[in-house]
UniProtKB/TrEMBL annotation, chain A:
This is NADH-quinone oxidoreductase subunit L. It holds the Pfam family Proton_antipo_N. Keywords: Membrane, Transmembrane, Transmembrane helix. It comes from Reichenbachiella agariperforans. InterPro entries: NADHpl_OxRdtase_5_subgr, ND/Mrp_TM, NU5C-like, Proton_antipo_N. The chain crosses the membrane at residues 6-26, 33-56, 76-98, 110-127, 133-154, 175-194, 206-224, 245-267, 273-294, 301-327, 333-351, 372-394, 414-436, 456-476, 496-519, 624-642. GO terms for biological process: ATP synthesis coupled electron transport; electron transport coupled proton transport. GO terms for cellular component: endomembrane system; membrane. One of its GO terms (molecular function) is NADH dehydrogenase (ubiquinone) activity. It is found in: Endomembrane system; Membrane. Residues 129-424 form the NADH:quinone oxidoreductase/Mrp antiporter transmembrane domain.
From TrEMBL, chain B:
The keyword Transmembrane applies. It comes from the Bacteria. The lineage of its organism: Bacteria, Pseudomonadati, Bacteroidota, Cytophagia, Cytophagales. It is found in: Endomembrane system; Membrane. GO terms for biological process: ATP synthesis coupled electron transport; electron transport coupled proton transport. It is a multi-pass membrane protein. The keyword Transmembrane helix applies. The chain crosses the membrane at residues 7-25, 31-54, 74-92, 98-118, 125-143, 149-166, 178-198, 241-264, 276-294, 306-327, 334-355, 361-383, 403-435, 447-465, 492-513. This is NADH-quinone oxidoreductase subunit M. It holds the Pfam family Proton_antipo_M.
Length: 643, 542
């Protein structure tokens, strides 16, 4: 049981937790080094595991034993796990190194590094888990650690609000996850993913409505975690957390967990659910890209971009191509983490050089000409942007082609394909707007030297955004990731469209071109006034979805709550109170009866007796003759009655 | 020797301690605290002995599966041709009640530590506390219904004074309300108890009328034409159904279930911190335990037939109380309503009559006992310092009291059912049991656990919203003269063990479940099979 493979898996899972604790105890001085060392060790173990652990290795234990039955938990290792673990481990390490510089002035960075450990532990749990129950446990723990990280600066106003919102939105998804678990348990009495997939292969013996419910529940879980429509609003708000955290959690790992889950349980999703998944993914991809246009906060643009790209992955699941979804997850993890870290580098630059408290270091309207002062950031940002936009020779092109090809060859409604293609153009355009605005022009001049701890992670992530990391053919649809996954994951043949690469490149390039022209003309840079331009308003406010959540959903719940409280206090409790009061009134009434009727009768009796006594008392006059007369009178009466 | 009378020691050690206190002059305040603490430590050790020598593999749900039984004839009243009435001192534990005993030992011990800063008439307070402890232990181990009822009623007296004398501003109103509510509930129970005694005899053919709950579970002990016999009807419905309904009302008030919960917020708001801890931590569980030990066990056919309504009451409590909690402006009231919401899970789990659901209900009672005790202590910490609990009066406390705020964060996440804490195991088992019961059984509907899931989301919402409003953001309090030192040693001493327990049982649930498993399997099996048998008897009787 306890063989080397199990030890490796357990080490990946538990080392970050121990490391987090150690980092917290090491304090502000040693925390960063500690967690980075531990993350490096985990990365080493991850690679070692990938090379040595055979697919299908699992480790199981009983958790909740109820007599005969017990809810088991376990870990599982296959290619999917292996790749995902390596991606998480690498990005976690780079983020930790980056944070050492980025957070160096923060007074509670020991807590920060400790939380990074806790987060990594939870994330590895999701990835390694062989069992939906254990997945759920870590799923919630990821939500919890992300709550703590988003709200890291808890003494400010916005971060706690954002973390609160993120957790509750995620909790909605978690409720769906539980529902999925309940359905699967009720029908199959197992939550082991591998066992469920074996059952699914043989055809699931379950009513259609229930299978739909299970799929819907699991998808709802992904909607929460992977920020899909209509719950995506927590992700842009989550940008109030430290920027390296956004790179780790809100670009590469936590938000990818939803997609990872759907890839894992793909065979359990019924065709109806897949249709829904595809449409929701399309809507998310489109709205996310659209909302990214009118944002002026560099992190929010990237956040909406992440929402949009997650939409692509979800669309690919809906189309029936989980391998494509996962491939896009991997490529996106690298270039998006790279972009976020670039944003961190830019923000750090402003924090270091501009000490004006009112200065917003994240507002792109305050930026310009940064290519001169941040050359490495400039180059890496350029490459990651090209990858995100889907330009050939970069990884994003490969995965996006695969995803769109999958969508086109599926039986999803054609609107989904349109969303997918239009979003290619939009992605290139909003990224172009950001890129030209930040790096070109001549606004900024302060001298600055980029730190190696920040440069190195950027360069690694950028290097991983080239096509050659995955395949030697820059236009090939087969690559290292997809080939190794195709053996273990459902991977149907995809129709091949020769015009597709050309079309998407044309879309992407024209998007960048449009952005270039606009920025150069100085148009879209001003904040679009919501009242004047309806489209600008929709974009800047993400289709007023937040407004809807706040006013309709939260407001409605609060109204309901207030009403019920009113009901509880003024009606229910008042009723009981009235009952008690009525009893008191009744008691007084009975008291009156008691006093005047019952007691009155007694008193009447007493009064009668006294009255009679008063009258007869006079007979005792002390006059012997009178006594004799009365005695005689009495005797006469007796005689009368006796005879 | 000790083992034979272990349960009796458990019951009477606090009473003896209370008796000793009577002889201590009332100005020796420290002495009462020490005596109480020692008594509770003894109770705790006794409970540990009990836990260790309990046989966890004993199967079944009947008199023979009870352990540490002690049975003494107490009152045997001969009433001529009617026969005789037998009242026994009959105490014993099974896998469920032993966990309630453990919970009581923990919460009562924490309660004593929390009582350390009671200033007003210390002697009276601790004597009453000891009496309360005795009656709670007695309640959980009584197998004779008369004895149970005696302890059940006896709890009211100390509680009435503990709230009414040591409470807040409206303490007299609250204590009176608590008293009357519970008294009305126990009258329902009393009626059923008398009816049962008139109907049940020691053995078929005997004329000795008994209060033994185990005997009441066997239909052959019922007199045919008796009041609660199987053929008696009232208003066209079997009297047994009425009896079940009466017991439901009685125990639902204690639990409490919506709509008879309105005493709880008042009682909690007015009660001093340690009494809130005891009230939420232990006393509410007697309601749930009463369902299990008495209502369900004696009337299994109604438990199955009306399980749907019981589950409905549970679901309503979960949602209703969660929403009402969201609208609270007083932190303690918010937690009081969250208690009501959490006790809804007990009803839902028990109603499902699945092993998962019933185990979850039991686990929820235990887990809520620990976590709600923690939450009320945390509220008390703030109240001790400021005399105030209004949520709107505080902001950004985390900057001034980081450890306290961290403890509240942990407590709130434990309460909202984060995996890793005991609350998750409980709610997970209840809901999965309820769903399984709805799909594979006939008692519940599938929408019930789904609505229960909404309760989980609401729970997260009101707890975290409170956290965000009171503890995060810029520091601000209404009254600048409030001193806000962080947790002191005594507070740590209460908070830390409770947090450790919530985590321990959340990660290793079988520490508890191993005790209850065989009993609950036996219980569910007994209810299912006996309900069919009883239904046939009732139909045959008509």
């Amino acid at each position: 049981m306890v063989d080397l493979n199990s030890i490796l898996m357990l080490a990946i899972l538990l080392l970050p937790l121990v490391g987090g604790l150690l980092a917290y105890m090491a304090g502000n001085r040693g925390g960063g080094v500690t967690i980075a060392t531990v993350f490096a060790a985990v990365l080493g173990i991850a690679v070692w595991s990938f090379l040595t652990i055979p697919a299908g290795t699992n480790l199981q234990a009983d958790w909740i034993r109820l007599g005969e039955y017990s809810f088991a938990v376990g870990l599982w290792y296959d290619q999917l796990t292996g790749i995902m673990v390596m991606v998480v481990a690498l990005i976690a390490l780079l983020v930790a190194v980056f944070s050492m510089e980025y957070m160096k002035h923060d007074e509670s960075r020991a807590r920060y590094f400790g939380l990074l450990g806790l987060f990594a532990f939870s994330m590895y749990g999701i990835v390694l888990s062989s069992n939906l129950l254990l997945t759920f446990v870590f799923w919630e723990l990821v939500g919890f650690s992300s709550y703590l990280l988003i709200g890291f600066w808890f003494d400010q106003v916005k971060p706690p609000l954002s973390s609160f919102k993120a957790f509750v939105m995620n909790k909605v998804g978690d409720a769906g996850f539980l529902l999925g678990i309940f359905v699967l348990y009720a029908y199959f009495k197992t939550l082991n993913i591998a066992e469920l997939l074996v059952l699914a292969e043989a055809g699931l013996d379950i009513p259609d409505a229930m299978l739909f419910m299970a799929g819907l529940g699991l998808f709802l879980a992904a909607v929460g975690k992977s920020a899909q429509f209509p719950l995506q609003t927590w992700l842009p708000d989550a940008m109030t957390g430290p920027t390296p955290v956004s790179a780790l959690i809100h670009a590469a790992t936590m938000v990818a967990a939803g997609v990872y889950l759907l890839v894992r349980v793909f065979p359990l999703l019924s065709p109806d659910v897949l249709q829904l998944i595809g449409v929701i993914g399309g809507v998310t991809a489109f709205t996310g890209a659209f909302a990214a246009f009118a944002q002026n906060d560099i992190k929010k643009i990237l956040a909406y971009s992440t929402v949009s790209q997650l939409g692509y992955m979800v669309m690919a699941i809906g189309a029936g191509f989980p391998v494509a979804a996962f491939f896009h997850l991997v490529t996106h993890a690298f270039f998006k983490a790279g972009l976020f870290l670039c944003a961190g580098s830019i923000i750090h630059y402003f924090h270091e050089t501009n000490h004006d408290h009112d200065f917003d270091a994240q507002d792109i309207r305050n930026m310009g000409g940064l290519r001169a002062v941040l050359p490495i950031t400039f180059v890496t940002f350029t490459i990651c942007t090209l990858s995100l936009a889907g330009i050939p020779l970069f990884s994003g092109f490969l995965s996006k082609e695969l995803v769109i090809g999958g969508i086109l060859s599926s039986d999803l409604p054609s609107i989904v394909s349109i969303f997918a293609l239009v979003s290619v153009f939009m992605t290139a355009a909003y990224m172009g707007r950001l890129y030209f605005r930040v790096f070109f022009g001549t606004q900024v001049k302060s001298r600055f030297v980029e730190n190696i701890k920040m440069k190195l992670p950027l360069m690694v992530l950028t290097a991983l955004s080239f096509w050659a990391v995955f395949t030697l053919n820059p236009f090939g649809s087969h690559n290292g990731v997809t080939d190794s996954l195709a053996q273990i994951i459902f991977n149907p043949e995809m129709a091949h469209y020769t015009w597709l690469p050309i079309l998407s490149v044309v879309l992407a390039v024209s998007g960048i071109l449009v952005a270039y022209l606009y920025v150069e003309k100085g148009m879209l840079v001003k904040p679009v006034s919501a009242s004047k331009k309806i489209w600008g308003g929709l974009s800047a406010n993400n289709f007023y979805l937040d407004y809807f959540h706040r006013k309709i959903v939260a407001g409605g719940a609060m109204k309901g709550a207030s009403f019920l409280f009113f009901f509880d206090k003024k009606i229910l409790d008042r009723l009981i109170d009235l009952l008690a009061k009525a009893e008191v009134v009744f008691a007084h009434f009975v008291g009156l009866i008691d006093k005047h009727v019952v007691d009155g009768l007694v008193k009447l009796l007493a009064w009668t007796a006294r009255f009679a006594g008063g009258r007869t008392r006079k007979l005792q006059s002390g006059n012997v003759q009178m006594y004799f007369v009365w005695a005689l009178f009495g005797l006469l009466i007796i005689v009368y009655f006796l005879t | 020797m000790l083992l034979d009378h272990l349960l009796s020691w458990l019951i009477f050690v606090p009473l003896i301690a209370g008796g000793i206190m009577l002889f201590v002059p009332s100005d020796k305040e420290q002495a009462f605290k020490v005596i109480a603490l020692v008594a509770m430590l003894v109770e705790f050790v006794l409970t540990m002995v009990l836990m260790c020598s309990f046989d966890r593999s004993l199967v079944g749900y009947s008199a023979s599966s009870l352990q540490f039984a002690q049975k003494l004839e107490w009152i045997n009243l001969n009433i001529g041709s009617f026969g005789s009435i037998l009242i026994q001192y009959y105490v014993a534990v099974d896998g469920v009640s032993i966990l309630m005993v453990l919970l009581t030992a923990i919460v009562m011990l924490v309660g004593v530590i929390s009582s350390w800063n009671i200033k007003k008439s210390v002697k009276g307070y601790f004597v009453l506390y000891m009496v309360l402890t005795t009656s709670v232990f007695g309640c959980f181990v009584s197998i004779d219904m008369f004895l149970f009822y005696l302890f059940f009623e006896f709890m009211l007296l100390p509680m009435y004074f503990l709230i009414g004398i040591w409470g807040g501003k409206r303490r007299e109103y609250a204590s009176m309300k608590f008293f009357i509510y519970t008294l009305v509930g126990s009258l329902f129970i009393l009626m059923v108890m008398i009816g049962l005694n008139l109907s049940v005899v020691e053995a078929p053919g005997s004329s000795v009328h008994t209060f033994d709950i185990m005997k009441m579970m066997d239909p052959s002990n019922y007199l045919g034409e008796a009041m609660l016999g199987f053929s008696t009807q009232w208003m066209g419905v079997s009297v047994r159904v009425w009896a079940f309904l009466f017991l439901m009302i009685g125990f639902a008030i204690k639990l409490p279930a919506v709509p008879v919960h309105t005493w709880l917020p008042d009682a909690h708001v007015e009660a001093p911190t340690p009494i809130s801890v005891v009230l939420a931590g232990v006393l509410l569980k007697i309601g749930g335990y009463g369902f299990y030990r008495i209502a369900y066990s004696i009337f299994p056919e109604s438990a199955v037939a009306y399980g749907w309504y019981i589950a409905l009451a549970g679901v309503i409590a979960i949602i209703y109380a969660a929403l009402v909690a969201m609208a609270q402006s007083d932190l303690k009231k918010l937690i009081a309503y969250s208690s009501v919401s959490h006790m809804g899970f007990v009803l839902l789990g028990l109603a499902s009559l699945t092993i998962e659901g019933a185990s979850g209900a039991m686990f929820q009672m235990f887990s809520h006992g620990v976590i709600s005790a923690l939450l009320f202590i945390l509220v008390g910490v703030l109240y001790d310092r400021t005399g105030n609990r209004e949520i709107a009066n505080f902001s950004g406390l985390a900057t001034k009291m980081p450890y306290y705020s961290a403890a509240v964060l942990v407590g709130f996440f434990a309460a909202l059912g984060l995996p890793g804490f005991s609350g998750f195991i409980a709610e997970f088992l209840v809901l999965i049991g309820a769903f399984d019961g709805a799909v594979n059984g006939s008692i519940l509907s599938t929408w019930m656990p789904i609505v229960g899931l909404v309760g989980l989301v609401l729970g997260a919402a009101y707890f975290l919203w409170t956290l965000q409003r009171m503890f995060f953001g810029k520091f601000w309090v209404k009254d600048e003269s409030w001193q806000l030192p962080d947790l002191n040693r005594r507070e740590w001493l209460m908070i830390l063990p409770l947090v450790v327990l919530a985590v321990l049982f959340g990660i290793f649930p079988n520490i508890l479940l191993d005790y209850s498993n065989e009993t609950i399997i036996g219980f569910v099996d007994y209810i299912q099979s006996q309900s069919e048998a009883n239904t046939i008897l009732i139909q045959a009787g008509n």
